[in-house]
Amino acid sequence: MSEVKSKKVKKGIKKHNKSNVVPLKLTRELQVVSRTANPVDFEELEKDKVNQYARDLAKETAEYLKQLRMSPGFFYYFILFHIKQATVFGCSYPEFKIADSTTTKEINKNHADMIVEEFPELGLEKKKETDTVH
Predict the structure, then answer these.
(1) Which DSSP symbol is given to 29?
(2) CA–CA distance, 35 with 94 (Å, rounded to integer)
(3) For 28-55, how does the pLDDT look when each residue is reduced to its tens digit (9 = 90+)?
(4) Fewest Cβ atoms nearer than 10 Å: which of 66, 68, 108, 120?
(5) Closest C-alpha to 63, from 74, 72, 53
(6) CA–CA distance, 27 with 29 (Å, rounded to integer)
(7) Cα 47 from chain centroid (whole Å)
(8) Residue 60 in 3-state DSSP?
(9) Rounded to whole angstroms, how far apart are CA atoms 76 and 83?
(10) Half-sphere exposure for 27 (CA within 13 Å, toward CB)
């Protein structure tokens, strides 16, 4: 019986002298996928493209509002609701919060600047400590 065991043990042991790694054989040259020198430049181009698309979309939305007999407040409420809902489901919550708070602050600042410039008769001036009109 010891002879049978020794044969089984010898069969199970195999020496691996060869490597299991298959060498990569290039049959043709590797191709360069992108010719842009810097990915940051590409990202800036994409930002400009998306910004222009958003502006065009806002203009089309304003034109569509003119056709309706609805108050602008309700109209933009519905638009903002669906845009924000798509945003919160389309990216992470921290990204949504940053985008939401940043755009709100920027829009409020732009609106205050426009009121000061367009309506000087109101006598509104920016406060130096808060950089706001009110």
Answers:
(1) P
(2) 33
(3) 776 766 665 666 677 888 898 999 999 9
(4) 66
(5) 72
(6) 7
(7) 9
(8) helix
(9) 10
(10) 0
